[in-house]
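Tokens for chain A. Residues wanted.
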């Protein structure tokens, strides 16, 4: 979840005029990045080798 502080910082960096769609896209991206960082900190990621094996299952 995005904090108010992070949200304010993000809004301050935006141009004076921004579409609502662009703002929402930016916020969704920031949320996904934040979630991924927390997952990584908790060790909830997989190795590149494990990813390669999973991709092989999908494409073979």
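Reply:
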């Amino acid at each position: 979840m995005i904090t108010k502080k992070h949200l304010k910082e993000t809004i301050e960096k935006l141009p004076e005029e921004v579409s609502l769609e662009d703002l929402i896209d930016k916020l969704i991206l920031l949320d996904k990045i934040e979630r991924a960082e927390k997952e990584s900190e908790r060790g909830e990621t997989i190795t590149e080798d494990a990813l390669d094996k999973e991709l092989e299952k999908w494409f073979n």
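The chain is about 75% helix and 0% strand. The chain has one domain: 4-59.
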